[in-house]
Write a structure and sequence with these properties.
Layout lengths: L3 H19 L3 E5 L2 H16 L3 E4 L3 H5 L2 H6 L5 E3 L8 H11 L4 E4 L3 E3 L3 E6 L3 H7 L4 E7 L3 E2 L2 H19 L5 H5 L14 E5 L8 E6 L6
Parallel strand pairs: 1-10, 2-3, 2-4, 4-7, 5-8, 7-10
Antiparallel strand pairs: 5-6, 6-9
This protein binds iron/sulfur cluster.
The site of iron/sulfur cluster (SF4) has 15 residues, from α7 and α8.
């Protein structure tokens, strides 16, 4: 066998897909970032025909090319929450508008084997949109974020995702220097609001694309 690790993940991701479906998520397995983009852009969006699309902070959405592809889309209003040319006040306004988009696309900090999504936000805008507001939500997630249980999910988020994101965002937090969580009280702390989504309500509102590649943090 050429790539046993890829086969291992194919089997495991399909098991997670089944568990997500039991929890009323719509779920897909993509072999690559390119295929994930195609599922999102050519399949789901073509079928949903959203008028407005927005995004929650996600390296994965950028790495898969989904963000760039949608920026060029015609007849869809993009509420761009990634545009760093906007002032901080304008960016907050875009995040508020994103809560009413037809479709919200983002990543997740962890997916538990039994089909739950676990996230930790600085302001809570991404979590707010995942849980309520946009008519549809697409979550794109690399295999590196699949964990066996809730305890491992909480640990992965605090020990890997949060410090890596603090470094990415150039935050003045202890973890950005040491690479580990110090449970800080920094004004720039990015760990403020947790969410655990056990099931999609209504059924099918949240669509999860599991990608057989390492993506994001
Ligand atoms: S609580 Fe503070 S130190 Fe810990 S990961 Fe979050 S921002 Fe970093």
């Amino acid at each position: 066998m050429n790539d046993p690790l890829r086969k291992y993940w194919e089997i495991r991701l399909n098991r997670v897909k089944e568990n997500l479906e039991k929890n009323n998520f719509e779920a897909y397995v993509a072999e690559s970032a390119e295929q994930a983009k195609s599922i999102v852009v050519d399949k789901i969006i073509l079928s949903l025909k959203p008028s407005t699309i927005s995004f929650g902070g996600s390296v994965t959405v950028v790495q898969t090319g989904i963000y760039d592809a949608l920026k060029r889309a015609e007849n869809i209003e993009i509420i761009d929450t990634y545009d760093m040319s906007l002032s901080p006040k304008e960016r907050i306004n875009q995040r508020k508008r994103a809560l009413l988009a037809d479709l919200f696309i983002t990543g997740t900090n962890a997916v538990v084997e039994n089909g739950m999504l676990v996230n930790l936000d600085g302001m809570g805008n991404r979590i707010a949109a995942i849980t309520f507001g946009p008519r549809h939500v697409i979550i794109v997630v690399g295999r590196n974020k699949v964990v066996f249980d809730l305890e491992e999910a909480l640990q992965r988020v605090k020990e890997i995702a949060a410090p890596a994101n603090a470094i990415r965002l150039n935050r003045k937090t202890p973890c950005a220097k040491t690479g580990q969580c110090e449970d800080c009280s920094s004004p720039e702390r990015i760990c403020n609001v947790w969410s655990i989504v056990e099931k999609s309500a209504p059924k099918g509102r949240i669509k999860v694309i599991l990608v057989n590649d390492d993506l994001g943090f």
